[in-house]
Design goal:
homodimer, about 290 residues, alpha/beta, Rossmann fold, Polyphosphate_phosphotransfera (chains A, B), Polyphosphate kinase-2-related domain-containing protein (chains A, B), transferase (chains A, B), kinase (chains A, B)
């Protein structure tokens, strides 16, 4: 295999998958592999290679965080039920040192959380300096199911897009690179995955009857997703559509997006904050 | 390679490495591989295999946690500087789904932490149901450097062993399996690792001049560790000595201890909390 900077990619993942390139979610092909010209076998081999690149960059980020650099990365994962958010956390997050991760899943808000504004629980979970944060669901839940089911009045949820933009701008200003990914499965693939969960006793725990109810609101969700992209995609906190019918591709794509974000930080190993020669002399003298 | 229940181990790691078997830390050989009769090559191959076993057990624990089982596992890591605690988190923690981990490092206490009793920050970090918690340093810091340097009066630190035992008993009663590991390097190996950190610019960030100062208290630390083993090792929250000169062995040993703890939970896949046949029918009817 010839080695070039982004093997397999005709154009960078961050461009090919950006919602401004992919077109509307309602017409998006969950089976496609935008920007990538390899098959599953190649993709899996590549993920192992690129995983090492990601791991090295993550260590560099972590080292800089320890040395006082305030930068961090936040990966926001959204997606239909069964789209594979958990698989991304496991198989992409699993490529790097778990100490360097700050993973937070957001379920139905607790009573205490509901007593605060919707960003309260989110702010508490933003990644510390030097970490890669992963949100498995996020503040976007507050304009997805909440919008679809009008869990709060429209007058309230409609104001949240702007609050989200302000929040993310603050994050970026504070040194966090924000990458947002919406995983997209087709209805057929979702049905196949739900079927599988009911066929295997080791998958029952992943099955939630409520997923079928939510599927009844498929088109409303597409509309709610499109609203997010239209209102909260920007160069500082871009949204990407990740076709997720092919799990191998979704993992590779998210890995590439993280690599891209980390490369842009142009990190170097932190300089010693001690006198290297003096310390070498001290160590050499140890018994 | 023939397959038996614990390949490579003449006796279970949990027994061979238990402080009651290994003898005093002052006479412990950091180069040894108690209970294990393989070399590095075999050990590394075995770790990859056993890592898959660990990952499967971790998923089972997680699934049960999601289904309402309150059990969890807590791995407490202590060790001299350079002993490789971080490497254990990376290479053993890295074998499982990072979502299933709750990793917490304990550094010098903050001002806020010092305003509370020493267990306050610890209690906040205990693993939730279904998780494997890893403490990189722990409440034992409060009877290790604190004791060696009398950072609080002896009358205060000497009472902590009993408080620790009570705390750990509570944890166990609440469903947490507690495994405690002290990683041991020899003085020669520590010197070699410190030297290496000063030879490579990508290792500078791991070097702390204070480590050399602490090395001056080596024998005091051995005494403080021995006091921990004598006062806080018990069948519910056992201490293990992990010889850490051979990194591959330390990782394999800790992996085995985790597998052993998880196997003892005798976990099965959670039963469905829904009517499987009815749900199969619903899914089959989806368009």
């Amino acid at each position: 295999m010839s080695r070039h900077r982004k093997p397999g990619w005709g154009e960078p993942a961050a461009e090919a998958l950006r919602v401004t390139s992919t077109g509307p979610i309602a017409e998006f092909d969950a089976e496609s592999t935008p920007g990538f010209d390899g098959d599953k076998e190649f993709g899996e081999t590549l993920l192992a290679e690129r995983g090492q690149v990601l791991a090295d960059l993550q260590e560099l980020l972590y080292a800089n965080g320890r040395a006082g650099d305030n930068r961090s990365v936040l990966l926001v994962l959204q997606g239909m039920d069964t789209a594979g958010k958990g698989g991304i956390v496991r198989h992409v997050g699993g490529l790097v040192d778990p100490q360097g991760l700050a993973i937070k899943g957001f379920g139905k808000p607790t009573e205490e959380e509901l007593e605060h504004d919707f960003l309260w629980r989110i702010r508490k979970a933003v990644p510390p300096a030097g970490r890669i944060g992963i949100f498995d669901r996020s503040h976007y839940e507050d304009v997805l199911p909440v919008r679809v089911h009008n869990l709060v009045p429209e007058s309230e949820w409609s104001g949240r897009y702007e609050l989200i933009n302000e929040f993310e701008s603050e994050l970026v200003a504070a040194g966090t690179t924000v990458i947002k990914c919406a995983l997209v499965v087709s209805k057929d693939e979702q049905k196949a995955r739900l079927t599988e969960r009911l066929e295997r006793t080791d998958k029952y725990w992943k099955y939630n009857p409520g997923d079928i109810d939510e599927r009844g609101f498929w088109d409303d969700y597409l509309e709610a997703y499109q609203a997010i992209f239209d209102k909260t995609d920007n160069d500082d906190a871009p949204w990407h559509l990740i076709p997720a019918n092919k799990k191998w591709f979704a993992r590779l794509a998210v890995c590439e997006l993280l690599i891209d974000a980390l490369e842009k930080l142009e990190l170097n190993w932190p300089k010693a904050d001690f006198d290297v020669e003096a310390e070498r002399a001290r160590v050499a003298e140890l018994d």
